[in-house]
Amino acid sequence: MAQTRKSTNLGATSLRRKRSKSDPMREFDALPTPLRQWLAEACLPWSPASARKIWMRARKEGESVAATLERLKRAEAKTLARDRVSVDA
Fold first, then answer.
1. CA of 66: how far to CAs of 10, 52, 72, in Å?
2. Nearest to 76 by CA among 41, 43, 28, 27
3. Contact 32, 52 (CB under 8 A)
4. Contact yes or no for 33/12 (Cβ under 8 A)
């Protein structure tokens, strides 16, 4: 059986965690409403900065809000596929 990290409010995962250098709640409050709603239902605990980076890139490329949210879903699915705990469970 694979060794897992202790389960926390972030869940059991083998993915590396990163510390925020700013106020994540302030960053979250500054996000566009559709992105905040998506983050509230996301499977992973996204940082506001990383979600905003994907959002801004997609919108700059002219994607609609729906297409941008699909891009976020694909990014999340790709990250979840790398999580050994989810695969081993």
1. 27, 15, 10
2. 43
3. no
4. no
Q: CA-to-CA distance for 38 and 85, rounded, in angstroms?
A: 24
Predicted TM-score (pTM) above 0.85: no
Residue 72's closest CA among 85, 88, 56?
A: 56
d(CA 12, CA 56): 30
Domain ranges of the chain: 24-88
Whole-number Cα distances in Å, 72 to 3, 47, 87: 29, 13, 21
Banded pLDDT at 6 (limits 50, 70, 90): very low
